[in-house]
Amino acid sequence: MPIDRAFVFAAVADERRRIAGLLDTLDAAQLATPSLCAGWDVKTVAAHAVGTATDGTAAFLRLALRRGSMARAIDELARRRAQLPAAEIVASLRHCADRQIDPPLFGPLDPLADVLVHSGDIRIRLGLPFQPDPQRAALAMDFLTGRWPFAFVPLGRLRGISLRASDHGQVWGAARKFVDRWLP
C-alpha cells in the first residue's frame, strides 16, 4: 500500500513541534536526565532531533566516512549541537519542523520513526506519559520492522520476534507472516 507522504510529513512536523513544546517546560536537571540512548541525556536527544532535520543525509554520510561509522557520526553531531543553549535547540527544532526529509533508500518513514522513538525516549525517562497517535506509531513500526530499520534495530535482532499492538491488534514481525497468510 502506498504511503501518504503528505500525512507522514505533517506528522513529523507535528511531532517535532510537540518535542519543542515539551522541551520548553523542562528545567536543567530534566534536560540532563540520562536518556534511553546510551551516553545521551535528554538535551542531546533533542539536539539529535534537530540534526536529523537540518544536517541532512550528505552531512551524516561525510562524517560517517571520516569517523568510520554512521553511529559515531550521529553521536558526534548530536553532542556538538547539545553544547548550544536549550532555548536555541528548541528554536531550531521549531524552525525546521516543516522540513520534509525523504532519505534515499529509507523514505519519509525514517524521520517519522526517528522523531517518535526519541519523543518516547525523552518522555519515558522523565516519567511522562507517552501515547503516540496510533496511526503514526503503526507507520513507524512498519518502518522499524521492515526491510531498512536503519540505525534503530540491529540487523537480525527482530528475527523470530513478533510485536503486537495491544490497543488495536496490529502485528509486526514473525507472527505477521502467519496472520497475513492464515487469518482474514
Structure commentary:
A two-stranded antiparallel sheet has the order 1-2. The chain has one domain: Four Helix Bundle (Hemerythrin (Met), subunit A) (Up-down Bundle). With 184 residues, it is mainly alpha-helical. The protein is built from nine helices and two strands; from the N terminus they run ααααααααββα. Strand 1 and strand 2 form a beta hairpin. The longest helix has 20 residues.
Architecture blueprint of SSEs:
Layout: H1 5-24, H2 28-31, H3 42-54, H4 56-67, H5 70-81, H6 86-95, H7 109-125, H8 134-144, E1 162-164, E2 171-173, H9 174-182
Antiparallel strand pairs: 1-2
Q: What string, H for helix and E for strand, traces the elements in order?
A: HHHHHHHHEEH
Number of domains: 1
Helix percent reads: 55-70%
Can you name the CATH architecture?
Up-down Bundle
CATH topology: Four Helix Bundle (Hemerythrin (Met), subunit A)
Shape: globular
Task: Using the coordinates above, name the CATH class.
Answer: Mainly Alpha
Radius of gyration: 17 Å
Computed structural class? mainly alpha
* Proportion of beta-strand residues: under 5%
Mean pLDDT: 84
Low-pLDDT runs of 5+ residues are: 175-184
Quaternary status: single chain
**Beta strand count:** 2
> Sheet with the most strands?
2 strands, antiparallel
Distance between the termini: 17 Å
Widest beta sheet: strand line-up: 1-2
Count of alpha and pi helical runs: 9
